[in-house]
Every structure is written in C-alpha cells, then in structure tokens.
Amino acid sequence: MKNQSTPKTSKAILDFCKSKNLTIDQFYGKATVGGSLYLSGLTSIPDGFNPTVGGDLDLSGLTSIERKKVKENKIDRDSYLFSWKKGKYIKADGIFTEVISKKGNVYKVKKLNNPKEFYLVTDGNGKFSHGDTVKKAKSDLMFKISNRRKEDYNDLTLKSVLKFEDAVVCYRVITGACSFGTKDFVNNKLGKPKKEYKISEVIEVTEGQYGNENFKKFFKK
Predict the structure, then answer these.
(1) Per residue in 30-46, pLDDT tens?
(2) I need a surface site. Which of 8, 17, 79, 129 has the fewest CB within 10 A?
(3) Is residue 91 part of a domain?
(4) Residues 144-169: pLDDT tens digits?
(5) Pairing of strands 32-33, 52-53
C-alpha cells in the first residue's frame, strides 16, 4: 500500500482531504490512518484514494469505486476473512491486521504501527479468534458456536469418537449451553482435556452440568 512518489494532487483531492480531515499522504496510503475511517455517506471518491487504515474502513455507500477495487479487495470464501493485497492484510472479527506469516489456518499477525505480534486462528467455516498465543487463540475458537444443527449429529452413537474441539461444539449445539458456561467448565472443572472423547465419555464428564440430561437423551433415544 506504499507508493514510491506522490501523484499530482488536484483541487478535488485537496478539498476531499480537508473535508475528511485527512493528510495527502494518508489519502495515497503513504501514511497510516491510525484509527477507523468512516466514509459511509459518500457515493464516490477521487481517483488515487488508497488509504492504509489501522481500524475499520467504512466505504459502504460507494457506487463508483467498488468495481475498480474488486480484484484487489476480496472475500476469502473458505474462511470468511476479508483480505487485501493478496493476503498481506486481513480483517477478522473487526480487527484489521498485517500478516507476518501463515501456516494452515493459523496466522501470525500484528496491528498497523504496533510491533506486538499475536495470532489469528480460523476453523475454515466462518469462525475465527485472536490470541496472544496459538493455544489461546485455538482455545477461544472452541467456544464460538458453529453453524451446525442438531440433525448433523443424528448418526453418532455413544461409541462415536470426536476431537475435543468438536466435542465442545457438539455439546453446545445439542444442549444450548452458553459460551461462558462451557468455557468455565473446561477451564475450571474438567481438568486437562484429552485429544479425543467418545460420546459416552462426554456424558460422563459433564454429569451434573447444565444440559447433561438433554445431551444424554439425544444419544440414548
């Protein structure tokens, strides 16, 4: 997003920057807009507008520039992350970041003008979470309910085996248990979790907890 030289600035651009409290360098992306930039009331903007924005960039009202930018700004349909500049910058969960590295569904990222690095993890199905470590990001991701339905588990039996993360989602979908309560149980009552659990083991370890009876009935019908 950095330009080698500043193009000739027209009066329209000067007037635009003045009205939106932007510098010329911010307009062209040579300087960062530190926070969010809300321009939803605009239907068009001068050519050359290419800002680097540290927070949210709202251009939802534009009608004349969206088609020009469609190849540059795209939606990653696999993970529902908004990405710019071929994945160099991504926005997930309202947080705009620069990608330092990526391995599978794990991104090492940092905010613009901030050296602190942290992690972004996605399940590839529209859920994502940030954390200071990969472990913390993955842990938080477990508690974000998926778009699964109870019917998706109809073929499972008491002997069926699920990965720990999938078992957490399964329990929440079937019982309606809230994120806070489930997270509290896992962090403070379960102890060190195993990598995999049989459905029968999930029933056993959640005995007396919210939703246990409904979970048990679902698989003993």
Answers:
(1) 887 766 677 767 777 78
(2) 8
(3) yes
(4) 777 788 999 999 999 999 999 899 99
(5) parallel
